[in-house]
Design goal:
3 copies of one chain form a homotrimer.
Chain A: H1 3-10, E1 13-15, E2 24-25, E3 35-39, H2 42-49, E4 55-58, E5 69-71, H3 75-86, E6 95-96, E7 101-102, E8 107-108, E9 113-114, E10 119-120, E11 125-126, E12 131-132, E13 137-138, E14 143-144, E15 149-150, E16 155-156, E17 161-162, E18 167-168, E19 173-176, E20 181-184, E21 187-190, E22 196-199, E23 204-205, E24 210-212, E25 218-221, E26 226-227, E27 232-233, E28 238-239, E29 244-245, E30 250-251, E31 256-257, E32 262-263, E33 268-269, E34 274-275, E35 280-281, E36 286-287, E37 292-293, E38 298-300, E39 305-306, H4 307-317, H5 320-333
Chain lengths: 339, 339, 339
C-alpha cells in the first residue's frame, strides 16, 4: 500500500512522501523503509526522529522532522487498522488433514481447515473458514462458529458452544468438570457436572487457560471479552461483554463479572461474587466470597478495598514498626493514674 | 426410574405422585417434568415452589406445596446418589483406535478404551474399563488401574503409578521433573529427578494441573483427594487422603499435607511445610518454609496466621492511616519533659 | 563404576572399599549396596550411618563409621556429577515416527528423534540428537538447536528460536500471542503480535508454562535460566542468564529480569519493571508497574519492600489490633485541653 492509501484508509493527513510503498509494520527501533510504525507520547516521538520507518503515524500536533508521517486522532488504534489492512489474516488451506479423525456425523464446513491429529466427535459442528490446528479435540456435540482459530492442542469437552471469530490459544481447556463435591460418609463424592460452556463472539483466550462447565447451568464468557494465559474460570461463572482478564487470575464458582471490567494479573475472586460493570481490580487482589465490587470502582489488596484506601494503608505500613515503638513510649510516659 | 424407586434407593419418603417417571437431573430453574432436582435452604425452597421439576429432594421438615417431593436426610448428597443411578457412567467403546501407538510390550486391558493418537510406551499397563481419551501419553512403565478416565492430552511421564477410579482432566501433567538444581561454577546444574509419582484410588485432578516426580523419592497424592485446575504439586510432596485443593494453589517441594485438609484457591505453600489433618487454609494464604499448620486449625494471610487473628488485623488495617495521625498528635501533646 | 573411579572423577578421597561396584544413585533412605548417595549437614550424616548405600559422598571433616565414603568439597554437586556419569542421558532412537507429519521443506537432523503425532511445519529446523516427544508441534520457521528435549505436547508457535540443550516439559507453550489490545469504538481490538521468542542455550522450562511472543520485538529467555511449572512470561519480557523462576510466577509485558536473579513461587511482576542482577524476590511478592528492584537486594510482599522492612511490618501486624485499643485508651486519657 502507498502511504497515501494508508492515509485514506485511516482518514489521516500525510506529511512527506505520499507515494512511498509500505509493505509491513514494525516498532520504531526495528522498522525499515518499507515499514509503517507509530509514535505516541514524547519518548516515542524522540525515537521516531531516528527511526528508519518508511512512514510513522502520529497524533494531532506532533511532527517528526525529516520523516514521512500520517497525522491521525489515535496513532495506536490507527496502527492496528493499518496493520490489519497490510497483513490480512492468514487463510489456511481448507480441508481435513488425512491424520484427523472426524466422526461421520460431525459437520465441518468445506472451507474450514482441520489440521493433523485433530479429533472431532459425533455431532460436532465447525463453521466456515475456522481453523483447527494440530491436535485440537472437539467433544460430542461441540459447536464452533465461523472464522475461529483454535491453536494446537485446544480441548473442548462435549456440548460446549463457541461463537464466531473466537481465538483459543494452545493448551486451552473448555468445559472440563467443575470442582464440586458433596462430603458424606468420610469422603468427597463428585457432584454432577452436567452443564455447559458458552463462549460468545470475538472472545480470545490465552494459552493453558481453563474454563469449567457449569454443574447444572452454563458458564458464559461474553462477547468481545479477552482472557490472558493460565486463567481459571470455575463452573457457573458468568462474564459479561468486553471485559479483560489478565494472566493467572482465578474466578471461583458462580461469580458474575460485568461488562467492560478490567482484572489485572493473579487476582483471586471468591465464589458468588458480583463485579459490576467497568470495575477495575488491581493485580493480586482477593475479592472475598459473596462480595460486590461496585460499578466503575477500582479495588486492590486482600481483602480488596477501594484503591485510595488501600494505598494509604500500604503507605502507613512502612511506619507501623515505628508506630508500635512510639505508642509503647507514650504508654510509659502517660501513667494510668493520670486520667 | 419411578419417583417411588428413587425414594427406595435413597431411603426417603414420597409426598405426591410416586408413580411419575424421572429420566434426568437438573437445577430447579431449568428442570422439566421428567427431571429430579433438590432444594436445600430457604432460598432454594422458595424457588422449588415455582420449579417445573418432576420431583424435588428436600430435607426433613421442608414441604413444597403442590410438588412431588422425596424427604431425605441430606438432599444434596441424595441428589448425587440419584444422579449416579439415573445417569450411569458413560462406557466408552472398548478397543484401541487405529491411530493410537501402543508398544508391543505394553499391556492394555481388553475392555479399556484407547482413543485416537494415544501413545502407550514400553511396559506400561492400562486397567479394565479405563478410558484414555485422544492424545493421552503414557510413558515407559506407567501403570494406570481400572475404571480411570484420562481426558484428552494428559501426559504421564515414565514410571508413574495411578490407582483405580482416578480422573485426570485435559492437559494434566504427572511426573515431570522437579525443579531442583545445584549452583556451581556460575550456573545451575540439574539435580537428578529419578523418583516417581503415586496417585492413589479415587483421586480427581483438574485441567492443566502439574504434579512433579520426586527427585529421589516419590510424590504421593492420597486416596480420595481432589485437586482443582492449574494447581502445582512439586517434587516429593506427600498429600494425604480425602483432602481438597482448589485452583491455582502451589505446594513446594517436600511439603506434607495431611488427611481431610481443605486448601482454597491461590494458596502458596513453601518447602518442608507440615499441614496437619483437617486444617483449612483460606484463599491466597502463604504458608512459609518449614512451618506447621496444626490439626484442625484454620489459617489465612501471608504469612498465614490463625483466622481469628488475621481477621482482626485486616479490620484494624482500615484504621491504620488514622492511627498514624492520632499517634503523631498524641506525641505532640505529650511533651518529652512530661515523664 | 568402581568407587575408586568415581573418586577420581570427582577429585575426592575414598575411605572404605574402593573396589566396590556402583551402578546407580539413590537417597540415603532407599539406597542399596550398589547405589551412590550423599550426606550434607548433621541430619543427613546421622541418616548416613544406617543407610545401605554402597558409597556416600561427604564433605570435608565428615566421617561415617563403617561406611564407604568419598570426601569431596561439595557433596551435592559431586552427586550431580557422579549421577550424570553413572546414568548418561538416555538417547532416543533416531528417526521420524511414521505418524509424525513433517513438512517437506522442514529440516530435521538425521540423528534427531521425532515421536508419534509430532507436527513440524514449513522451514522449521531440528538439530542433532534433539528429541521431540509425542504430539509436539513446531510452527513454520521454528528453529530448535542440538541436544534439546521437548516433552509430549509442547507447542512452539511460528518463528520461535530455541538454542541447544534446552528442555521444555510437557504442555509448555512458546510464542503464543501477547495480551495486547487497543480499546476503541466500544471494544478491544487485537494489537499486532508479530514479534518472536528466543530461548537461549541450557534453558529448562517446566510443565504448562507459557511464554508469549513479542508484539513487535522479541521475548528473550537468557542462557542457563531455569523456569518452573505454570509460569507466565508475557510479551517483550527479557530475562537474563542463569536466573531461576519458581512455579506460578507471572511476569508482565516488557519487564526486564537480570542475570542470576532468583524469584520464588507465585510472584507477580507488573509491566515495565526492572529486576537487576542477583536480586531475590520472595514468594507471592508483587512488584508494581515500572518499579526497579536493585542489584543483589531481597524484597518481599505486595507492594514488594526490602525483606528486613517487610519482616518487621509483618511482625508488627500481630500487635495492630492491640495497638488500636491502646491508642484509643491513650486518647481518652490525654484530654485535648492538656496540650
Amino acid at each position: 500500500m502507498k502511504v497515501s492509501e494508508i492515509a485514506e484508509l485511516l482518514g489521516g493527513r500525510v506529511a512527506g512522501t505520499a507515494a512511498r510503498e509500505i509493505r509491513g509494520v514494525a516498532a520504531l527501533e526495528t522498522a525499515s523503509a518499507e515499514d509503517l510504525s507509530f509514535a505516541e507520547g514524547p519518548r516515542a516521538l524522540s525515537k521516531a526522529a531516528s527511526s528508519q520507518a518508511g512512514c510513522i503515524l502520529v497524533g494531532e500536533g506532533a511532527a517528526v522532522e525529516g520523516r514521512t508521517t500520517i497525522t491521525v486522532a489515535n496513532p495506536k488504534w490507527a496502527f492496528v487498522r493499518a496493520s490489519n489492512a497490510l497483513r490480512p489474516r492468514q487463510l489456511f488451506e481448507p480441508g481435513i488433514h488425512p491424520t484427523a479423525v472426524v466422526h461421520p456425523e460431525a459437520q465441518v464446513a468445506a472451507d474450514a481447515s482441520v489440521g493433523p491429529g485433530v479429533v472431532i466427535e459425533r455431532q460436532a459442528r465447525v463453521g466456515s473458514r475456522t481453523r483447527l490446528a494440530a491436535g485440537v479435540t472437539l467433544g460430542e456435540g461441540v459447536e464452533v462458529g465461523a472464522d475461529c482459530i483454535l491453536y494446537p492442542r485446544v480441548t473442548v469437552y462435549p456440548g460446549v458452544r463457541i461463537g464466531e471469530r473466537v481465538i483459543l490459544h494452545s493448551g486451552v481447556v473448555i468445559g472440563s468438570d467443575g470442582f464440586g463435591y458433596v462430603f458424606a460418609e468420610g469422603r468427597h463424592h463428585k457432584f454432577p457436572q452436567l452443564g455447559s460452556v458458552a463462549i460468545e463472539n470475538d472472545v480470545e483466550i490465552g494459552s493453558n487457560t481453563t474454563v469449567d462447565r457449569g454443574s447444572l447451568g452454563t458458564t458464559v464468557i461474553g462477547e468481545g471479552t479477552k482472557i490472558d494465559n493460565l486463567v481459571q474460570i470455575a463452573h457457573n461463572v458468568r462474564i459479561g461483554r468486553h471485559s479483560v482478564i489478565a494472566a493467572q487470575t482465578g474466578i471461583s464458582g458462580s461469580s458474575e463479572i460485568g461488562n467492560y471490567v478490567v482484572m489485572a494479573g493473579q487476582v483471586g475472586v471468591g465464589p458468588h461474587v458480583h463485579i459490576e460493570d467497568q470495575a477495575i481490580i488491581a493485580g493480586q487482589s482477593g475479592v472475598l466470597d459473596g462480595k460486590t465490587v461496585r460499578k466503575g470502582s477500582t479495588v486492590w489488596g486482600t481483602p480488596a478495598r477501594p484503591i485510595a484506601q488501600i494505598k494509604k494503608i500500604y503507605a502507613s505500613l512502612a511506619h507501623l514498626p515505628d508506630l508500635t515503638r512510639i505508642v509503647d513510649d507514650l504508654s510509659r510516659r502517660l501513667p494510668r493514674s493520670g486520667h
